[in-house]
Request: fold
Amino acid sequence: MITGIKGMNDILPAEIEAWHFIEACVREVFHPFGFKEIRVPVVEKTELFCRSIGEDTDIVEKEMYTFADKSGNSLTLRPEGTASVMRSHIEHKLHILNPVDRLYYVGPMFRYERPQKGRYRQFHQIGAEIIGEPSPLADVQLLNMLWRFFARIGINDAVLQINSLGCPGCRPRYRQALVDFIAERLDRLCGDCRRRYQHNPLRVLDCKVEQCRDAVQAAPSVLDFLCPDCGTHFNTVRRLLSNLAIPFEVNNRMVRGLDYYCRTTFEMIASRLGAQNAVAAGGRYDGLIESLGGPTLPGIGFAIGMERLTLMMDTTRIPASRPLLFLAALGEKAVEKAFLLLADFQKQGIGAEMDFSGKSLKSQLRRADKLQTPLVLILGEDELAANQIQVRDMETATQEKVGLESLRTFLASRWPHHFPQA
Ligand code: HAM
Reply:
């Protein structure tokens, strides 16, 4: 038996309703905010991710699926969506058409992480990006959309945490304070942190190793180092979130695992997810587009982990789709006639199924029961000869003989909700 790849999951038919529901909610919630969908390839040149996410992040150092194609080009399965969307935005000069662009995407991402509950090697993200808008109103609009999305999905126990990472003007001062702080505690840090701290001290704050977390518990707060502009930006975000009645916590330890962020960063934390508790995350990346060779445009965005979302959702609220009708036919001629009726219902968009094998009525009814179809149409040789059909209501276990000619009118009069008048 050839099995699937560790950490890469099949989404089986029994689970798909939840995914369809989420995807429908994305469109329903995002479109009124002016977001348009963009679809980019799942493979990009490796350099794109190294330059945007950062050479000494866990993602780039350890987690990328990188390979050489047959021409020797180094390609990578995308570990996230922001870099690809920015690459596409720059390449197609989308800013000329829309100085402010609101884009979203839904699709698989790939990271070679150790699989566990809520952490996979292929996982799916719903991402949204606002490109070209420096105002803190964009930050709040994006967070409001994220908040509305969670409410629509029916998740109300995730906590929004926010922070500011400052800008290239004020970050160096914080960085230096952090390097000085860490330098005094080096012996307590893991190998990765000791190697990275000079170059990228923020990574130490993000380290998952227990002893590193303890060592940096009293590290200086980034919020004490913000320049006046970054301070005002962050205060406006906080004030407007409160005005919109969106609850949040400030977490000055949140640095995020990707290097492109500045100013506002945020995560939606769900404690019942266990160790992998961030169900969504994002932030501002004002220098990213320029650093990739594009125009000087600010940006802010988020990505929601779809698997983590499904783990949190109450899936019993999602109605399972089931066929409305089951056609049970007995005898060769009746099977052929029923097959035509089946095709006609399907043409009209009415969910209908039948068993082609001509099994006993009992076994066909059992199948209909399993499919939970509310109605069964029974066509035997006798009914066929009389140009009639039996309509069985599975809920009341009652049935009625109806002329084949008037079947559609009968169904429409009895169940107008399911069978609109033809
Ligand atoms: P991220 O924090 O790396 O950010 O990922 C966002 C979300 O994707 C996480 O909060 C989590 O729900 C989900 N996720 C990440 N890795 C895995 C995994 N191995 N298995 C399952 N779910 C996972 C980004 O990717 C940024 N691009 C977000 C962003 C958009 N920032 C600005 N715009």
About this structure: The chain has 17 helices and 16 strands. The radius of gyration is 28 Å. Residues 13-170+226-317 form a domain with the BirA Bifunctional Protein; domain 2 fold (CATH 3.30.930.10).
